[in-house]
Specification:
Elements: H1 9-19, H2 32-37, H3 42-48, E1 77-82, E2 89-94, H4 115-119, H5 122-128, H6 136-139, E3 148-152, H7 164-182, E4 186-190, E5 192-193, H8 197-212, H9 216-219, H10 221-235, H11 238-245, E6 256-257, H12 261-276, E7 280-290, E8 295-297, E9 302-307, E10 311-313, E11 329-331, E12 333-341, E13 347-352, E14 363-366, E15 380-382, E16 389-394, E17 407-410, H13 416-425, H14 451-464, E18 468-473, E19 476-481, E20 489-498, H15 501-512, E21 517-519, H16 524-532, E22 537-538, E23 540-541, E24 551-556, E25 573-575, H17 579-590, E26 597-601, E27 605-606, H18 608-612, H19 615-618, H20 627-632, E28 637-641, H21 645-660, E29 667-671, E30 674-676, H22 692-696, H23 701-710, H24 715-728, H25 737-748, E31 755-757, H26 759-782, H27 792-797, H28 804-825, H29 829-857, H30 864-885, H31 890-899, H32 929-951, E32 960-966, H33 970-975, H34 977-984, E33 986-991, E34 1002-1006, E35 1011-1016, H35 1023-1048, H36 1053-1056, H37 1059-1094
Helix pairs in contact: 7-25, 15-16, 15-21, 23-24, 25-26, 25-29, 26-29, 26-30, 28-29, 28-30, 28-32, 29-30, 30-31, 32-34, 35-37
């Protein structure tokens, strides 16, 4: 019901004492919540729900009887649903052949909305019909801003499954795709999955160990990679199934996997081109090393933990600290120890937060101006465990004389600042860790210990030597691998790097000059910050799964001991597109024959983001100038979560500009991060990840809890998560369907804000689909004998037969169309969703359907024109309204659209599916401000009539007489008296009668300074009973008022009670005083009315 017609019993209770000649009542007045759940009249709802409680022997089943003999071609699926209102189990059997069109005309429309039944078969049919594909010829030469829409899906990791954050991405992207397709644009939405190097290798390694007890090294690289491909082919299809269930209209014929042949060709070409341009190079540098992954990672894959002081943390790669009851290791302390100065009794005290790194110390730095240490310039200290002479150097850039002792230990191979200092002073770079984080051969007696066990052992050894000084809490920032959770180590390793400076500048300039739009604009600051402070990108990873780096180390077969990691041999690394090309280049480098050359390919693979950065053009066939590349590149839009703005989006822009000399898209739309209802990031470790299929198909509490038990959470966390999920979903998650999930997620979208997603609210949008189904089913009864035409809208608007209600709803339809289109253009999906929801629920179902009920039921000759106009208007609103909703909720709109009368009779241009029919466009000529303003007046009057009836507890079957006084709206009201009678439950409505003709006993509602509504209540109200109710209410209210007054007048109240409580008490007092005054006024009014009626 529209807001002006809704009756809220509490607001009525306050207002009606003053404005009406009678009291409100707490009974027989539907709450706003109840009204929102009952958009139709009670009679209509009863009619719809006639058989709801009865056992149904036959469930809705759709199938083509002509295919009964072709059993082998028929795919049969079943879905079981238990509804809240009807606890019986409903089982749907889909008998439609896979790819066949659902035969819904031969079956009666189900009496209730069942998502599994409604959503069955459509996706397969849409795909088979080729509705998702786009011919390059149709897109060639079209403007990507206006006539063409191309988008690639952010490829999810092949290892996992989609969660609700991905579902939001899918809902937004598919809504845009379907909208553009229906707008007549050449539309392509390309799907794909990412090979997810680290994640996939980790999953398969764990599986291999669990099933066979083998490591990847036991198998060898080739066999292990074969195992991963087997795993991918067996388990990697879950995501595509989820996307299909979500209704994503991607072109499956163009589906890509970032490790497939087409993408691999692009990766090899990109690597070569970047190397040929001098942007890609190999170097020995200090970088982030994950001991758990045994691989380098890039700077942006580092998370940080802020430690306020001494903190104990679990380290999964270690057996556990024997000195801590929980096996945790100490962090966040500054440990001081002394170095003995060579040939002296003097000691030089230094401090570190990573004591084990002292095993690799190759210098101690002091400030050149520090008077305390000038006598030590040029001297040495001696390492306590290996006797190494360590030079004392002076460095004003590194040393702060006022901090600590003013002496700083230097470990160039394990600290970024020390690394730069070591280069300045030509210090030795000694690595003391193995790839898995154990102390190596440079660690003296500590060799073989894991790094944090060595930390404890070094402290003990220093104490034994009398060199340990002490430790104190210290704030620090701990780098953690975002992939593995492992505490990172700065390590010097040979890696491949991309110089991003020039590419980053082009990407920044593209946004500054408006060529590339980032929405919401507030994220431009992040874009500038990252790209203007960019570092060279480490693109190599020490993994086996991924794109193997197309580089070979060349040596002569007769040579021995040539170290490929020695930077003096870096020229021997040849980058090529294939081994044959590498051999030819090696021949030039080594100046010998091909027969003399030995090539060894780099075992490392490329960072996953390298191949993902090529995705917008690699999927089109780049580097080849394919038809798809010419027709669909550059793409139109990149839609994704704001959390990967730099990880992925910036790299696509940089690589697109560098390799194709074009922006890969002209707009970036970043949707909000999806968090749980408590604002926490959705994470497996928190146990709050919900699979979209659990919402679409429904899920029992038991299965939710079993999923937690099967995960990797600690036992305590499992119990906590179980408790949370039991509280949130005591009965599990009911089956909602894809449409409800999509519509609910779109409702949450607010640009630039995180989405705190309450699944219960999403579940509530199943009710919208249910209302849509029931209202359309009910409305179809009104147009069952109506025959639409191709030119129906123009015929109707020029017919001269339309009532104000008809003009009003067409005008509101045009407004809704305009709002939805404009909001889609502006990426305001929540506003588009709300505009369509408001039109359907408040204006079409709750108002117009009710208004035309007596019109369409009246089949008299005198009513022919009015009935035709009402039917035509309703059919147009249903058909157009379904097309309006389709991009957001594709399944139920297709189902209902196919059921409209006249389907298949509307000429050669009629489309066979709603998804390829024309999207509604606003016709300004059909907007009618006067009709809308007039209807607003009528709605207010109807609301007033209902409010008056509720105030006096008038039952629905009893009609009442109304009198309306108005100074400006008489003609509008007079023209709509029948509508007021219909929804106001009126036996008669009189306008501006003289005072003498008004009854003495009336209920009054003053709408505004121009209009007043009066209701004749003579004989309808037992005044004595109403007075008794009010006196009882007053007797309960007075003690509360008196108690509060006593409390507020008590000695010390003003001085001792805090301001917030005093303010609350004052507001409560004012409310109680008003309530008492209203009740007393109502009693006096009833007494007056009783006296009038008795006379």
């Amino acid at each position: 019901m529209s807001e002006s017609i809704k009756t809220d019993e509490k607001s009525t209770a306050i207002a009606s004492y003053v404005l009406q000649a009678g009291p409100p009542s707490d009974t027989n007045t539907p709450s706003s919540k109840e009204q929102s759940q009952q958009p139709l009249s009670k009679n209509a709802l009863k009619k719809l729900a006639k058989n709801k409680g009865k056992d149904k022997k036959e469930k809705p089943q759709w199938g083509d009887g002509s295919n009964k003999k072709k059993k082998k071609e028929t795919t049969t699926s079943t879905s079981t649903t238990t509804t809240t209102k009807n606890p019986q189990t409903y089982t749907f059997v889909n008998k439609t052949p896979k790819g066949g069109k659902k035969d819904i005309q031969s079956e009666p429309m189900a009496e209730a909305y069942y998502p599994s039944a409604v959503e069955a078969a459509w996706q397969d049919w849409w795909e088979k019909q080729g509705f998702y594909t786009c011919d390059p010829k149709d897109a060639m030469g079209k403007n990507p801003d206006e006539d063409k829409f191309v988008m690639v899906i952010p490829p999810p990791n092949v290892t996992g499954s989609l969660h609700l954050g991905h579902a939001l991405t899918a809902a937004v992207e598919d809504t845009l795709t379907r909208w553009h397709r229906m707008c007549g644009h050449a539309t392509l939405y390309v799907p794909g999955t990412d090979h997810a190097g680290i994640a996939t290798q980790s999953v398969v390694e764990k599986m291999l160990m669990k099933e066979t007890g083998q490591t990847r090294h036991d198998l060898g690289r080739e066999k292990f990679v074969e195992k991963i491909w087997e795993w991918k082919n067996e388990y990697g299809g879950k995501i595509t199934n989820q996307l299909r269930c979500l209704g994503s209209s991607v072109d499956w014929s163009r589906e890509r996997f970032t490790m497939d042949q087409m993408c691999n060709k692009a990766v090899v070409e990109a690597f070569n081109q970047l190397h040929e341009k001098g942007l890609l190079y190999r170097d020995m540098r200090l970088g982030n090393w994950s001991c758990a992954l045994k691989s380098a990672i890039s700077d942006i894959e580092v998370d940080y933990i802020e430690l306020e002081g001494r903190t104990f943390l679990e380290v999964k790669s270690h057996k556990g600290n024997p000195r801590d009851k929980n096996g945790k290791y100490e962090f966040g302390v500054l440990t001081s120890f002394a170095y003995a100065v060579e040939n002296s009794d003097e000691r030089l005290v230094v401090a570190t937060t990573r004591l084990e790194t002292m095993l690799g110390d190759t210098g101690v730095a002091i400030h050149p101006d520090d008077e305390r240490y000038k006598h030590l310039h040029g001297k040495y200290v001696v390492h306590p465990f290996n006797g190494r002479r360590i030079p004392i150097i002076t460095d004003s850039a590194l040393v702060d004389m006022s901090f600590g002792t003013g002496a700083v230990k230097i470990t160039p191979a394990h600290d970024p600042n020390d690394y730069e200092c070591g280069k300045r002073h030509n210090l030795e770079f000694i690595t003391v860790l193995t790839p898995d984080g154990a102390i190596n051969h440079n660690g003296s007696q500590f060799e073989g210990m894991m790094r944090y066990d060595a930390r404890i052992a070094v402290e003990d050894a220093l104490k034994e030597k009398g060199l340990y000084v002490g430790k104190e809490p210290n704030k620090m920032r701990l780098g953690v691998c975002s992939r593995s959770g492992d505490i990172l180590e700065p390590m010097i390793t040979p890696q491949w790097y991309v110089n991003c400076d020039s590419m980053a500048k082009r990407a920044v300039d593209a946004v500054r000059n408006g060529e590339l739009k980032i929405l919401p604009q507030e994220h431009e600051k992040t874009w500038y910050y990252w790209l203007e402070n960019i570092r060279d990108w480490c693109v190599s990873r020490q993994l086996w799964w991924g794109h193997q780096i197309p580089a070979w180390f060349a040596s002569k077969k007769t040579e021995t001991g040539v170290d490929k990691n020695d930077m003096s041999n870096n020229h021997r690394w040849v980058v090529a597109r294939c081994e044959e090309e590498a051999l030819a280049r090696a021949k030039e480098v080594l100046q010998c024959s091909e027969e003399e050359i030995s090539l060894e390919r780099d075992e490392d693979v490329l960072d996953t983001w390298f191949s993902s950065g090529l995705f917008p053009f690699s999927v089109m066939g780049w580097p080849d100038n394919t038809e798809d590349m010419k027709a669909f590149y550059p793409t139109s839009l990149l839609e994704t979560g704001l959390d990967i703005l730099f990880f992925w989006v910036a790299r696509m822009v940089m690589m697109g500009l560098q390799l194709t000399d074009q922006l890969p898209f002209h707009t970036v739309y970043l949707h909000a991060m999806v968090r749980d209802k408590d604002g926490r990031k959705m994470s497996k470790s928190l146990g709050n990840v919900i699979d979209p299929l659990e919402v679409i198909n429904g899920c029992t509490l038991e299965s939710l809890l079993q999923k937690l038990e099967a995960g990797n959470l600690p036992a305590k966390e499992v119990e906590k998560c179980k408790k949370d999920q039991t509280a949130d979903f005591p009965d599990g998650i009911p089956e909602c369907g894809s449409d409800a999930l999509r519509f609910g997620l779109l409702a949450y979208t607010v640009q630039g804000r995180d989405v705190n997603l309450d699944i219960k609210r999403v579940v509530g949008y199943r009710n919208f689909c249910n209302k849509l189904w029931n209202a359309t089913r009910f409305a179809l009864e009104y147009v069952s004998d109506f025959n639409p035409t191709i030119t129906l809208l123009d015929d109707l608007m020029g017919s001269g037969k339309m009532a104000l209600r008809d003009k009003f709803i067409v005008s509101r339809l045009m407004a809704a169309i305009e709002a939805v289109n404009e909001n889609f253009k502006a990426y305001k999906f929540g506003d588009a969703q709300q505009a369509s929801y408001t039109f359907w629920m408040d204006e079409l179902c709750n108002l117009y359907l009710e208004l035309i009920k007596p019109v369409v039921y009246d089949k008299s000759e005198a009513n022919v024109d009015a009935r035709w106009a009402a039917q035509a208007t309703l059919w147009l609103c249903l058909e157009t309204g379904l097309r309006l909703l389709h991009p957001m909720i594709p399944f139920v709109t297709e189902e209902l659209w196919q059921r409209l009368p006249g389907r298949g009779t509307l000429g050669n241009d009629e489309k066979e599916s709603i998804m390829i029919s024309k999207y509604p466009q606003c016709n300004e000529a059909y907007k009618n401000t006067a009709a809308e303003q007039g209807m607003e007046v009528i709605k207010k009057i109807i609301g007033s009539c209902r409010s008056l009836r509720a105030s006096y507890q008038i039952t629905n079957k009893t009609l009442t007489k109304f009198y309306i006084k108005t100074t400006s709206e008489a003609e509008v009201i007079r023209a709509q008296i029948d509508d007021i009678k219909t929804l106001g439950k009126a036996s008669d409505v009189k306008i501006n009668v003289d005072e003498a003709s008004l009854p003495k006993s009336v209920g009054i509602d003053v709408l505004d300074d121009q209009t007043t509504v009066l209701m004749d209540i003579k004989g309808l109200v037992d005044f004595s009973v109403e007075i008794q109710k009010l006196e009882k209410n007053l007797s309960k209210t007075m003690p509360a008022l008196e108690n509060l007054a006593t409390k507020m007048s008590a000695p010390g109240y003003e001085e001792k009670v805090d301001e917030e409580l005093k303010r609350a008490n004052t507001e409560k007092m004012e409310g109680l005083q008003k309530k008492v005054a209203d009740i007393k006024a109502a009693i006096a009014n009833f007494e007056k009315l009783a006296l009038l009626e008795s006379n």
